[in-house]
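Record ATP synthase subunit c, 85 aa.
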Amino acid sequence: MLMSILLTAGYALMGAGIGAGIVAIGAGLGIGRIGGQAMESIARQPEAAGKIQGAMLIIAALIEVVSLFAAVICLLIALNIAEIQ
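=>
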């Protein structure tokens, strides 16, 4: 019984850590893609650089908020499992 609970808690902690890592990787890839595409767009139309940069910053901020929210959820799961033990 105790071994089953500890094993389940270990899997939950491991899942929370893996989830936080996947969130960080996804956010990095998303922001990198946005930056690359924005630079390409600015190179094609330099006169629209202000609009492109503004849109890029807003989208990057939204990605950061979503990734921060997901990482906090993973940490809350880990803390709740640690309290149960």
